[in-house]
C-alpha cells in the first residue's frame, strides 16, 4: 500500500513562536532564564498555538482506546484477559486512578471500545478482540481500514469540539506485547531487548512474552517496507486506531501529550505514516518498558518526568499534565507586560 495517500501533509508548528519564547525567557532574568524544561514545554505549546506568549490550556482531553488481544491467551501478562473489560467499566463509572488524576488535572475523559472481547457494536467498534499475532493476522484489511478511520474521526471530533491538548491512552491486556512487537520489528531490535518485565511478571511469563514477540516478528520480517501490512498482521485494531488518532491530531495542528509504551510506539508509527507528526508530540513520562524508550529515542523526544508508572490507561501522562499546564501559565505571566 502507498502510505503517502493515507494522511494529508503535516504542517510544522510555528518555529518562530517557539524561538521567540525561548529568547524572551533567556532575557527575562532572573526567573525566565532558570525555568529549564518548563520553559521548553511552554515554547513548544507556543509553537503549536502559533502565538506568544502561550495561552493557558483550557480543554485538555484524554481518549482511551480499549481493545483485547488474542495473544493474551498465551499468558504474556500477570493480568487475566477479563481485566480489560473490568478496567474499562471502572473508567466509564468515573472511578479508578485515571479518573482521579483527570479530575485533579482538569482533563475530561472519553473511552473508545475499539475491540474489547465482548458482544457489542457501534460506530467506534471494529472487532471482538484480535488475532493471536504469533500465528495469525491481527485483523483483516477491512478491519484495518475501519480502525484507522475511527482514530482519524475521533481526532477530528475532539479538535472540532475545542480540545487544545490531546492525551491518547490505551487499555487492554497484552498491549505492551503488541507495542514491543511493532517497535522491535521496525527497529530490528531483538525480542529479549525490547521486552520489559511488566507489572507483577514472573520469569515464565517473561519467557512466554519473548517467544510470542519473536514469532510475531518473524511473521512480518519481509514486510518492513510495508508498514501498514506490518500493523495489520502484528498489531491490533485499538493500536491502529491510536496511530490514526495521533497522525490526524498532528494534521489538525493540535498538541499531543504521550503516555507509555503503546502510545509512544503508536506515535513512532504515526511519524512514519505522516512525516512531521512528531513535532506535535511531547512525552509525558518514562515507564520501565524498553519499547517506550526505543520509540522515544527514535522520535528524539525526552520525557518530562521519569515516574516509572506502568499502569497504562494514560495514568503517567495525566500525572505530567499539571506541569504542562503550569509551564504555559508560568511563562505567559513571565512574558506578559508589567
Automatic annotation (TrEMBL):
GO molecular function: nicotinate-nucleotide-dimethylbenzimidazole phosphoribosyltransferase activity
Matching InterPro entries: Nict_dMeBzImd_PRibTrfase, Nict_dMeBzImd_PRibTrfase_sf
UniProt keyword annotations, A-Z: Glycosyltransferase, Transferase
Any Pfam family matching the protein: DBI_PRT
PANTHER family tied to this protein: NICOTINATE-NUCLEOTIDE--DIMETHYLBENZIMIDAZOLE PHOSPHORIBOSYLTRANSFERASE (PTHR43463)
NCBIfam families referenced in this protein's UniProt entry, alphabetically: PRK00105.1 (NF000996)
The name this protein goes by in its record: Nicotinate-nucleotide--dimethylbenzimidazole phosphoribosyltransferase
Amino acid at each position: 500500500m502507498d502510505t503517502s495517500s493515507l494522511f494529508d501533509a503535516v504542517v510544522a508548528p510555528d518555529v518562530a513562536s517557539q524561538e521567540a519564547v525561548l529568547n524572551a525567557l533567556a532575557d527575562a532574568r532572573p526567573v525566565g532564564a532558570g525555568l529549564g524544561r518548563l520553559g521548553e514545554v511552554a515554547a513548544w505549546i507556543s509553537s503549536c498555538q502559533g502565538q506568544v506568549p502561550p495561552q493557558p490550556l483550557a480543554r485538555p482531553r484524554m481518549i482511551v482506546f480499549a481493545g483485547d488481544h488474542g495473544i493474551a491467551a498465551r499468558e504474556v501478562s500477570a493480568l487475566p484477559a477479563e481485566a480489560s473489560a473490568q478496567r474499562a467499566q471502572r473508567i466509564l463509572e468515573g472511578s479508578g486512578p485515571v479518573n482521579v488524576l483527570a479530575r485533579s488535572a482538569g482533563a475530561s475523559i472519553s473511552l473508545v471500545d475499539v475491540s474489547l472481547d465482548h458482544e457489542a457494536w457501534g460506530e467506534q467498534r471494529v472487532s471482538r478482540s484480535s488475532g493471536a499475532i504469533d500465528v495469525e493476522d491481527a485483523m483483516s484489511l477491512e478491519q484495518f481500514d475501519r480502525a484507522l478511520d475511527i482514530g482519524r474521526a475521533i481526532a477530528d471530533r475532539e479538535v472540532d469540539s475545542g480540545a487544545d491538548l490531546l492525551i491518547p491512552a490505551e487499555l487492554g491486556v497484552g498491549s505492551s506485547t503488541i507495542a514491543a512487537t511493532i517497535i522491535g520489528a521496525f527497529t530490528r531490535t531483538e525480542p529479549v531487548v525490547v521486552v520489559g518485565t511488566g507489572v507483577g511478571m514472573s520469569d515464565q511469563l517473561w519467557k512466554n512474552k519473548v517467544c510470542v514477540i519473536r514469532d510475531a516478528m518473524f511473521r512480518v520480517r519481509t514486510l518492513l517496507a510495508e508498514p501498514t501490512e506490518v500493523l495489520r498482521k502484528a498489531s491490533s485494531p485499538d493500536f491502529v486506531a491510536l496511530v490514526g488518532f495521533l497522525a490526524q491530531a498532528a494534521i489538525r495542528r493540535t498538541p499531543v501529550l504521550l503516555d507509555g509504551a503503546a502510545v509512544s510506539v503508536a506515535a513512532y508509527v504515526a511519524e512514519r505514516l505522516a512525516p512531521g507528526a512528531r513535532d506535535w508530540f511531547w512525552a509525558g513520562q518514562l515507564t520501565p518498558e524498553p519499547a517506550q524508550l526505543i520509540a522515544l529515542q527514535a522520535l528524539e523526544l525526552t520525557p518530562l518526568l521519569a515516574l516509572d508508572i506502568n499502569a497504562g490507561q494514560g495514568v503517567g501522562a495525566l500525572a505530567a499534565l499539571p506541569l504542562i499546564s503550569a509551564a504555559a501559565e508560568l511563562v505567559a505571566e513571565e512574558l506578559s507586560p508589567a
